[in-house]
Design goal:
Layout lengths: L6 H13 L45 E8 L20 E6 L14 E2 L2 E7 L12 E4 L12 E6 L3 E7 L6 E8 L12 E8 L3 E8 L17 E7 L6 E9 L5 E13 L14 H7 L82 H7 L68 H6 L79 H7 L68 H6 L69 H7 L45 H21 L1
Parallel strand pairs: 1-3
Antiparallel strand pairs: 1-13, 2-4, 4-7, 5-6, 6-13, 7-12, 8-11, 8-13, 9-10, 9-12
């Protein structure tokens, strides 16, 4: 699109499009009046200004219209044709152009104020603009050349970084602007190229355009639709508040450029109607009353007395003094000029102090203040002055001068500290503020509400909330009165910030905070179980639980973990078979029962006491009491050692159960002895022969001495006696006794040897 029209023409065309997109060409504002005869062609709210004073003869009721608030079309050349360069610095912004103090554009104050702008540049860290790239104006073909008035846009190109064009602050309802993107075969907009156009308002930002090039060089990405053509953009910005239009270009090619032009901001406007359309000094209303043309400055009302009232409105002569009323200074002739007479046609009245339409002479309440003139006289106020009324503080229609309770609070004035204030009667602290309004009735520095909340007396200056921790919250309401971080409900010392836990409740804290000043003494036995906390820690018990105490078996005050003799029996634990039993320390027979309780320490089956009596060793399982008959009673105690039923003291063989008598004392027991009485005759022969085998004097008669007693000898002969026959048993007499004797001797020797 090639533009050749003057910027102002373009501006007007833009306004026409904004205000009425469907109007005819000769009625720009669409009000039905052709622009050629419309004094306000761009404002549909009015069309005529007869006197040309800029105020419309009439305004459509409730009508508002859009007007240009500010604009710029970049129409002035740069001073000296300057180009702007930058040395390139990735951390700094360089202002390359600012027109604030330079008349660089054409101004047309009839349609808005010219707005200035600022451009700044951020380098990408490279060489910046030293290659000759610049910001400036160019013709609409995109070719950089000489400046030509009326055909320029604002160019931004090849910045090797980011350039931002920022217009000055403006407040408007909407904006429009034109954008042109340089085309041509030499241009290629890559994905590193970016164009952002936005309005940054005080409350929010609206982004009108945000396009990015494409990867490679084939389709130019978002730049493509705008290349080689001028495109108009618009946006509603009324809700964004005061702000700036910003145009930000990121580019890195000498031939890549964009152009901006015809930036217009519009807002609503309300016209003021002209009250004197023909500007002849008579208002349109007066001219209508007087019968003249309000649109003709030469047609004015007749006013012979020049009093500002046309003759047509001046009439009768009320007092008959020959002077028309409108010309007579005292129409009722009461001596008061009409201008000072509230009743210029009533000779009995001239004043109406209260303006109620009733003259003061007839009015019982001249000042219309609601009090009769008589009442005001009684109460000392001015009956002719509405601002002077009887004081009636309580509004009971009885003035204070006559009222014993001026404020009507039920307290007589003489007892009322605030007799003129119905809301107050008492001032407890004497500070001049009644208790009802006074937020601190006792003046103790705490408001009444605070004191009520904190459970103190708001009427007693000596009763005030405590704030132990100084946090501004009274202790009564403060969940943490001492401000130590622990709520009072969980704090054993709610008024002392140095401590908060007392596990055993003995009044001594478990711990006192470091560098904290307090009169408290730290508890070294937190659970009050009688054990020092450090000892409990060493001994493995819980120093915070009184039911958890160190194990001290012997009660010597040293826990078993540290005690070398846990049961206190005098034997160290390492030498004590029963380290936890003060009554035991040895187990000689290893049966799990200590020697002190064990009745058989060596486990030989004989009780220790018995072994001691029986002369055996109670700690030696090999040393056992002698018990020949195995009756469980040692021989030392046994009255019948061999268990043959004959007491040892009566038993010739106390250690031989088979023998107990030795009648003939031959050392062979009678049971084993063949001849108990030692008379040479076998017991069996004596029994056969009828003699007593237990009596050595009683022997069989053997005359022939053949060894066969005569009583059984069939052949009693004289001569040499026959040798008696030997018994058939070939065992030796007394052999069992001999074995027993040898056994006892061996046992005795063994016992003595073991004891040694």
């Amino acid at each position: 699109m090639t533009r050749t029209a003057k910027p102002l023409t373009l501006l007007i065309a833009l306004l026409l499009l904004m205000t009425s997109p469907t109007v005819l060409a000769d009625d720009s504002d669409g009000d039905g009046v052709d622009d050629s005869i419309d004094d306000f062609p761009n404002n549909a709210c009015a069309d005529t200004d007869t006197d040309g004073d800029g105020l419309p003869d009439s305004v459509v009721s409730g009508c508002t219209s859009n007007v240009v608030v500010a604009y710029t079309s970049f129409e002035d050349p740069f001073t000296n044709g300057a180009k702007y360069y930058d040395t390139g610095n990735g951390t700094s912004n360089y202002y390359l152009w600012n027109n604030a103090n330079e008349p660089h554009v054409a101004h047309n104050q009839t349609n808005g104020s010219e707005i200035g702008f600022t451009t700044f540049y951020t380098s990408n860290g490279g060489v910046g603009l030293t290659d000759g790239d610049y910001f400036g104006t160019a013709n609409y073909t995109g070719t950089v050349g000489n400046y030509t008035e009326g055909t320029q846009g604002y160019q931004m190109g090849d910045v090797d970084g980011t350039a931002t064009l920022t217009l000055d602050d403006v407040t408007a309802d909407s904006m429009t602007f034109d954008v042109f993107v340089q085309g041509g075969s030499s241009n290629s907009y890559e994905d590193a190229d970016n164009l952002i156009i936005r309005f940054v308002g005080s409350s929010s930002t609206v982004e009108v355009l945000n396009i990015t090039g494409a990867t490679g060089s084939s389709n130019h990405g978002g730049f493509a639709p705008y290349m080689g053509v001028w495109t108009s953009f618009s946006s509603n910005i009324g809700s964004l508040g005061q702000g700036n239009l910003e145009i930000e270009l990121t580019s890195n090619s000498q031939t890549e450029s964009i152009y901006v032009d015809n930036v217009v901001f519009t807002g609503t406007s309300t016209l003021t109607e002209d009250l004197d359309d023909d500007n002849d000094g008579w208002s349109d209303v007066d001219e209508a009353d007087c019968g003249t043309d309000s649109l003709d400055g030469n047609d004015v009302p007749a006013d012979s007395d020049a009093n500002g009232i046309c003759d047509a409105l001046e009439g009768d002569d009320f007092d008959g003094d020959g002077i028309p009323n409108d010309s007579d200074p005292d129409d009722d002739n009461d001596g008061v000029d009409d201008e000072d007479d509230a009743f210029p046609l009533d000779s009995s009245e001239s004043a109406d102090a209260d303006g109620d339409g009733v003259g003061d002479n007839a009015d019982s309440d001249d000042d219309n203040d609601g009090y009769s003139d008589t009442t005001e006289a009684d109460c000392g106020s001015d009956p002719n002055d509405a601002g002077s009324t009887p004081v009636d503080s309580d509004g009971d229609d009885l003035c204070d001068d006559l009222d014993s309770d001026d404020d009507g609070d039920g307290i007589d004035d003489e007892d009322d500290e605030f007799p003129n204030d119905g809301t107050e009667s008492v001032d407890s602290d004497g500070d001049g503020i009644g208790d009802n309004a006074d937020t601190d009735d006792d003046n103790d520095g705490f408001s009444d509400s605070e004191e009520l909340d904190c459970a103190t007396d708001p009427m007693d200056e000596d009763s005030y909330p405590m704030d132990s921790d100084g946090d501004g919250v009274c202790d009564y309401l403060d969940l943490d009165g001492d401000n130590d971080g622990v709520n009072d409900g969980d704090d054993s010392f709610p008024d002392d910030p140095c401590a908060f836990t007392d596990t055993d409740g003995d009044g001594m804290p478990n711990k006192i905070e470091e560098d904290c000043q307090t009169t408290l003494v730290e508890d070294d036995d937190d659970d009050n179980d009688g054990w020092h906390d450090t000892i409990e820690i060493t001994c493995g018990s819980d120093h915070m639980d009184y039911q958890s105490t160190p194990t001290d078996l012997d009660g010597d005050g040293i826990c078993d973990v540290s005690d070398y003799d846990d049961d206190g029996d005098g034997f160290s634990d390492e030498d004590d078979v029963f380290p936890n039993d003060e009554k035991e320390w040895l187990d000689s027979d290893g049966d799990g029962q200590g020697d002190n309780a064990d009745t058989d320490d060596d486990g030989d089956g004989w009780p220790d006491q018995i072994e001691e009596v029986c002369e055996s060793e109670p700690l030696d399982s090999i040393s056992v009491p002698r018990d020949r008959d195995g009756d469980g009673m040692c021989d030392v105690q046994d009255p019948d050692d061999d268990g043959d039923g004959i007491a040892d003291e009566q038993d010739a063989f106390p250690n031989d159960a088979t023998e107990w008598g030795d009648y003939d004392n031959d050392g062979v027991g009678d049971n084993a002895d063949w001849d108990d009485d030692g008379d040479g005759w076998l017991d069996s022969d004596e029994n056969t022969c009828g003699t007593d085998p237990m009596d050595a004097q009683s022997m069989p008669v053997d005359v022939d001495e053949d060894g066969i007693c005569d009583s059984i000898d069939d052949n009693v002969q004289t001569g040499e006696p026959e040798e008696p026959e030997e018994p058939e048993d070939d065992s030796l007499p007394g052999f069992p006794a001999l074995l027993a004797a040898l056994a006892m001797l061996g046992a005795t020797i063994s016992i003595r040897h073991r004891r040694e």
